[in-house]
Amino acid sequence: METAASEGQEVTTIPETTEPTNGKRYATREELLSYSPRATKDVYWEPLQMWFQLTELSVTRQDRIRDSVMRPAKTRGGDPEVDISGFRRKLVIECLIQPKLTPEDFTALGEIGGQLFNALQDAAAKLNGVDEDSQKEAERDSPTTQS
């Protein structure tokens, strides 16, 4: 790929290759877009002597949850409002694959015991990088704005 040069400017040529000179092999577009394995986590709940299985969400499913809690800004140019009521239940419903729940289970899920729900929610949050440790790591790794 070449960039156009104005008078007196240098032409930059960028090779279109997945084999860079630093010895690393970069993924191709096809490899990236065809990758679908997701992490799963099994949670054992001793009082019931049963297992539950949760999965990492696809970007589409993560966006669906994010969009469900975002509200348009009340003023032009203002920040959107975030209504996180029900966020934890929505996350668990989307992540649980054994047993599989549906959005119709939203109200009933709010009535189960808090300890079991918290164990499921903690696993779902960790799988999807929205747990407290992941948040702290993201903040630590993000560049700070200097004035």
Task: Identify the overall geometry.
Answer: extended
Number of helices: 6
Stretches where pLDDT is under 50 for at least 5 consecutive residues are 1-5
What is the percent of helical residues? Answer: 25-40%
**Average residue-wise pLDDT:** 83
How big is the Rg? 22 Å
Strand composition percent:
5-15%
CATH-assigned fold name of the domain at 37-72 and 82-131: rbstp2171
The first-level CATH class name of the domain at 37-72 and 82-131: Alpha Beta
What's the number of extended β-strand segments?
Answer: 5
Order of helices and strands: HEEHEEHEHHH
Biggest sheet architecture: 3 strands, antiparallel
State the secondary-structure class. Answer: alpha+beta
Q: Can you identify the CATH superfamily of the domain at 37-72 and 82-131?
A: Phage tail assembly chaperone gp13-like
Keywords:
single chain, 147 residues, alpha+beta, rbstp2171, 3-stranded antiparallel β-sheet, two-stranded antiparallel sheet, 5 strands, disordered N terminus
In short:
The chain has helices spanning 29-34, 59-69, 87-95, 106-109, 114-127, 132-141, and strands at 40-45, 50-55, 70-71, 81-82, 96-98.
Question: What does this protein look like?
Answer:
The protein has 147 residues and is an alpha+beta fold. It has a domain at 37-72 and 82-131: rbstp2171 (2-Layer Sandwich). It is 37% helix and 13% strand. The protein is built from six helices and five strands; from the N terminus they run αββαββαβααα. A three-stranded antiparallel β-sheet has the order 1-2-5. Strands 3-4 form a two-stranded antiparallel ribbon. It is extended and about 70 Å long.
